[in-house]
Specification:
By secondary structure, the protein is an alpha+beta fold. The chain has 2 helices and 12 strands. Helices cover 18% and strands 33% of the residues. Mean pLDDT is 77; it is low at 1-18 and 189-194.
Amino acid sequence: MKNKILPLTLAVLGCLALPASGYILVPNGDFSNGSENWLRVGGDGEGPANTFPTGGNPGGYGAITPVGGWGILVTPTVAGAAGGGVPISSLSLTAGGPVTFRYDSINLTGPGAVGGFKWEAWGNNALVGNTGDVFPTVIGSGATWQTYTYDWTLPALTDKLIFVPLWAGGGNASTIGVDNVGVVPEPSTYALLALGAAGLGAHLVRRRRR
């Protein structure tokens, strides 16, 4: 019996382990599976919004070029579609609680602005709030991959989120890349996971000593 406890301990603790990256990706947030879980939408000619298998940070990435109109990638379903959006429970988030959004971006056509974003909060298939169009202050020249974050409070009725990357703002119609789209879980989530893992480990150790 004792020999079975240690593998069980390791297996359970492995399930409770925090992501090594320190954040949780939205489905295919690193574009490792191409355009899976992403929809391309646009208007006024629908500018290109594509995914590429290499050149990201690292691996695949999404790219948006505002030529002949505008084009955006939306994950995982176009806003308003029944069932669309990423359940906040899968991202270790709580309705009404704080969240830190994060993504990597680069200006692929030279120095200047980097891609912006909008996060939409949905509840019962209805829009309950959004961040508005956000364009971060460029880190460095913008010509290399950098990580950008944004703090927000989820509306109380939120049950799903939709991420909308945007091409570069500020009048800079540049082709931009986006990668590693995700959220940083609330500190309380980390604390609960660590506490649960520690308690389970202590319990199983006590059982082994009997």
